[in-house]
Amino acid sequence: MIGQSLFYMGEHDLAHKILAIVEEEGAERAAYALKLLQSEGQLTIASTGKDPTTGRLVTQEYRVQGPVMIFLTTTAVEIDEELLNRCIVLTVDEGREQTRAIHETQRESQTLEGVLAKEARSQVLKVHRDAQRLLRSILVVNPYAKELTFLDHQTRTRRDHMKYLTLIRSIALLHQYQRPVKTVEQGGRVVRYIEATKADITMANRLAHEVLGRSLDELPPQSRTLLELLDEQAIAWVERYLDVVRPTLVMHPDPGNLFLTQLGEPFSPSRMTQLVRNYVNAADTGKKGACHLFRHTMATLMLENGADIRFIQEMLGHVELSTTQIYTQVSIRMLREIHRATHPTAKSRRTKAQEAQTRADDNGNGEEDLLADLAADDEDEDED
Question: What does pTM read for this prediction?
């Protein structure tokens, strides 16, 4: 889909329809038009052309009414942020239980019951479509709107808040035949409306947790899933420690600390540092350091292999993204070194003396200063 294709469709070609785009990457050049359709509900463009009778250049305005909904699919991990905050994000359940359920359904479709169910699908769809046609255009009032609350920590929640309110209104609209129609007179005319109920809000809250919660998450779904798996593993190992190891270490009275030394005393922060430092020194790798050395190495390697910096931020427990961004300096230095070592142009322009000086700069004070900054940041967070 090219950038201007949607602007030159017929005025009513998209009206009362769903615009479905398979694979968002194919519509990347039309992203601006899609954002306008979502925000404004229509597209307008002024184009210059020749008047067939006079031959003079004239400006003609084209207008395209928007669809009732835009539906996009994608396999990309990162989605355009401006497009993302206009959408409700639904992700595929990649869990093993879901895969088993899909396999079971696929096998069932090969049985007699499955074949008959497929034949009856068109009748079921007809019933759903007939039910949709019964819905009337009527105003929905939320008498509890002023009592509702919503997240306000990000600017993007201004749009997400409207998604939440629209969800409540949509649920009430679907139940319009179970709601009394009320009337009010305004400006000499009668206005008809229905009211949302607390049950509508309860259902919206349950759906919002599953749907809008993913939209508000700063991590891509795949990264969030990986982080949850890591959390589960960490919890499992801690539970095993509590059940098997800690009872053999604890001395009465129990100090109440999670981790205990072999003497049954609480682990101090410096004790863990000393243990890891002893292991590092015993390994004789030529590197000095303790726990933070492994944190820094993990974060740097993850970044160099394409991990989302926000995922690294959450794993490290950094409150501010700027703290995590220090690791990008390490990766940039590595890329610069690879470029100097492998790119023909870079190699031909650099003398041996320059290469020696650059290596000294990169491996000397620059690296020490960077690691010092990282250690200082970690110490500050430990103190907090």
Answer: 0.52
